[in-house]
Design goal:
With 333 residues, this protein is mainly α. It has one domain. The chain contains eleven helices and two strands. A two-stranded antiparallel sheet has the order 1-2. The two termini are 38 Å apart.
Length: 333
């Protein structure tokens, strides 16, 4: 397990943690280190990454598993149902496959597992078990809202409200958009996540996701339908930027399928004693345990700017404890 003297007693709260203190993207660290920045972006995509795999999956989906635009002019179950079934299959394959490997078969034991605790049981969950509860909300609500957004966007392309940008019209922008979508989502996620922690919205919707203080692959998209509508609403950016339907598929597949990997509870997928695929982040794992910290991601340092960044050290924990005390005072608790 990587260790750091600055971690203090905080490190002992976890079965595994990365090197501490955790750092935001080198793009936002001064002085700039160009090689570190290039390495950050390279590691985010190559040689094997969830982003690259999902981009390939989106291209395959558009080429072989997507109803043609000409049949999508009017809303109809004839073309929307196959999309829902495809998305249901993808979600089950990714979240279900990871759950089977990591938790049922314990294929890599506890290697790179952040939290030693098991997934929970009890009446706090809709179906009495965390896994069943997470599967229900992910598949019944998550996949349905995902498909609804997808159908809306494809319908808009089919009717000419959005003009598809072909690859040969602007190949640089066409490819660049695959790289820009995760950055946009990192920006969008912080702000909607802070909104979801506003007490009325939290009590209405976000509480359901936070029943998962420990997380597994099915936890990522386990949300209230209101939260699904907000969480996936970032795809509406394509109403104002030039894009292609394949970017819509990638955008939504990235946000939904990566929710399973980032909430897997493991930093990476270990095959033959090596971390072959980066998955969960300690940064977000701490949010599920400590609640009022790390609302965003490490790509854009909103948490550092607004005082909600927990870097995994004892000093970071003390800072977050002081912040919770201030928040409790403001709320009169």
């Amino acid at each position: 397990m990587p260790t750091d003297p600055a971690a203090g007693g905080e490190a002992g709260r976890w079965a595994y943690h990365p090197d501490l203190p955790i750092q935001v993207s080198p793009v936002f660290r001064w002085p700039w280190q160009p090689l570190a920045i290039l390495r950050w972006f390279w590691d985010s995509w190559f040689l094997i990454s969830e982003r690259l795999l999902i981009a390939g999956l989106a291209v395959l989906s558009w080429s072989y598993l997507q109803p043609p635009l000409e049949v999508s002019v009017s809303f109809s179950a004839a073309w929307i149902l196959p999309m829902w079934l495809r998305n249901l299959g993808l979600m089950t394959l990714v979240a279900g496959g990871l759950h089977l490997w990591l938790f049922t078969f314990q294929g890599q034991g506890t290697a790179l597992k952040f939290d030693a605790r098991n997934l929970a049981l009890g009446r706090a969950f809709t179906l009495g078990r965390q896994v069943w509860d997470n599967m229900f909300w992910t598949l019944a609500s998550g996949v349905t809202v995902w498909t609804a957004y997808e159908a809306l966007m494809i319908w808009a392309f089919a009717n000419g409200y959005l003009a598809p940008l072909p690859f040969d019209a602007n190949p640089v922008w066409f490819v660049a958009l695959f790289f820009l979508i995760p950055i946009w989502e990192s920006f969008y996620f912080y702000w909607i996540h802070r909104l979801l922690h506003w007490r009325p919205l939290y009590r209405l919707a976000h509480y359901l996701h936070h029943r998962n203080s420990t997380v597994g692959p099915w936890s990522g998209l386990s949300m209230h339908p209101v939260e699904h509508a907000i969480y996936l609403g970032g795809v509406l950016i394509h109403w104002v930027i030039a894009s292609h339907p394949v970017h819509i598929l990638y955008h939504l597949q990235y946000y939904c399928l990566s929710a399973a990997t980032t909430h897997s509870g493991f930093e990476g997928l270990v095959i033959r004693d090596r971390n072959r695929l980066a998955m969960g982040t300690f940064h977000h794992q701490m949010h599920h345990r400590y609640f009022e910290c790390n609302y965003g991601s490490l790509e854009i340092p909103w948490d550092k700017l607004f005082g909600s960044f927990h870097d995994g050290t004892a000093a970071g924990r003390a800072q977050m404890a002081a912040r919770r005390k201030r928040l409790a005072g403001k709320l009169g608790r």
